[in-house]
């Protein structure tokens, strides 16, 4: 066997192609097939694709663009294709490129050439824009439902803990004592804004692109109001060029996901801190924690860490689609096929993250004794001493702040709490201080005093909780 023949004429080098490599034995056309195929991911749109096609063909029949019996045959055929998808899944044949061509090709196999009439007055450009909107509309609704459940969990726990005291932080330094219920209700507010954002975006996106055709509209006498209505849209889109090239609804969805993911990540971060031994504020449910394979004492807050971690992927999805879209001229460009993976990924990460957070909030055990003890340390009631000096002794706040600073310094030097300083020592700092100051220095008094609207006083928190329960349609406590 000559060396030359070995190198150039072996069976293997005939079967593969030196330029394209073994994976692309068929050369450029194989690469094109693979890079072009969106069926591996857009098969997730099959229900929307069938629904939009049925609405379209019903309209074509009613408008006399397709004979009524042909429209009926196509509609029945689409039901048959849907039944196959439901039973066996969507076949992934790269030659059929995407969900639209896969469905149409299968329809033709089932009902014959009449299937070809379905694509009258339509293009894949308005088809995919319509399908994707329908999908995103459902995804908005699902995310909203998940967030409502999370809010119910927060409100329930906040109601239980309106009177539980914990340290409130700024700069992650003990600042003033607050109600645990108040802290939990802060997240209720964030998710309330998230749900308002979803409602706003979902209302704005509810216009139907179908009938915009490839980019310019169509010469057939279609009825866009009819298809829009059949698919539950408020109206048809007003500009065909915009309609086939607009992905703002997907960006709005990803921004909604990102804002919620950011809030979830902040809450996750707090749960992780609170579950750590030095804090010891909570125990997360075993069902949402894991052990360590090497350190037997450990119980790790993995679910919370993954919620925090997933937020990075979700925000990445938003960035990805913004960058895909930013340089595209009107109207459709194939780049836009890449709109779906980030949206699908973000939607499933969000569903999981919201469910995990709901489970952690609902199942957490709060160590309220430990929280109270932490609030009692750290001079959290120093502001209350200053406020007492203003109110009881008529001292200007700036001066009161200064006097309080001296008291904190003294207590700190002795390693005791403010309310453990003997009266004579307080009097030595400022003679206007009397016995009644001690009532203001307890964490309970401090929290109860902050009864301004939206403040942390337990009665205020109970009012917030009652209002939230009403807004969520929960029963009164
Ligand atoms: N699979 C394509 C997408 O997801 C469908 C639209 C194709 N249109 C076209 N003109 N090639 O965007």
Poorly predicted parts? 1-16
The rounded Rg comes to: 32 Å
> What is the tally of beta strands?
8
Spell out the helices and strands N to C.
Answer: HHHHHHHHEEHEHEHHEEEHHEHHHHHHH
Specify the biggest β-sheet. 2 strands, antiparallel
In terms of quaternary structure, the protein is single chain
Bound molecules: arginine
User: What do the pLDDT scores average to?
Assistant: 93
Treating each run of at least 4 consecutive H or I residues as one helix, how many helices? Answer: 21
Strand order of the largest sheet: 1-2
The portion of residues forming beta strands comes to: 5-15%
Question: How does the overall form come out from the CA principal axes?
Answer: elongated
Give the helix proportion (percent range).
55-70%
Q: Helices and strands: which structural class?
A: mainly alpha
